[in-house]
Amino acid sequence: MTATRAFLPVTLPEPERTPALAVHLSPLLGLLIPGAGALIGPVAAWLLFRDRSRMLDEQGKEAVNFQISVWLYNLALGVLLFGLFALGLLGGVAGSMLGRPEAGGVALVGTFGVFLGLVLPLLLVLNVVPLVFMVLAAVSVSRGEPYRYPLTLRLLS
C-alpha cells in the first residue's frame, strides 16, 4: 500500500458516491463516440471531480487506468490480428509463386481458423469484460465501497 492509499477511508461518504458513480460509468460515452470516447469520459470526470476529495481522485485514476489498459490490450490484439493476416497473405503468395496454390490455400484457411478460434473470442472478451467490471465498480461505489479494477496497468498513481 502506498502512503496515499493508507489513509483513505474504507467507505465513500454519501456526497462522493454520485460523482464516483459518474466516473466509473463515464466510459459508456464510448458507445456514442467509438474509439476515444471510452477514455474521454473517465478523464473528463476525473478532472472534474478529483479536487473534491482524495477518494474521488483515487477512483478517477482507477477508472482512467482501466480504460487505458483496455485500450492497450485491444491495440496488442490488433497487432496480433495484423500479423496473422500478413502471415496468411505471405503464405498464399509464397504458395502461388512456388506453383503450389494448395499450400497458399492451406495458409489462408489456417489463418482464418486462428482468427475464428483465438482472435475473435479474445476480441469479444476484451469488449464485454470491461462492461462487466464497470457495472461491478458502479455497484461497489454506490454502496460506498471503493473499487479496484483487476488486470489494470497502474499508469496514473
TrEMBL record:
The chain crosses the membrane at residues 28-49, 70-94, 106-139. It comes from Deinococcus ficus. The lineage of its organism: Bacteria, Thermotogati, Deinococcota, Deinococci, Deinococcales. Its main location: membrane. It is a multi-pass membrane protein. This is DUF4870 domain-containing protein. InterPro entries: MamF_MmsF. It is found in: Membrane. Keywords: Membrane, Transmembrane, Transmembrane helix. Pfam families: MamF_MmsF (PF09685).
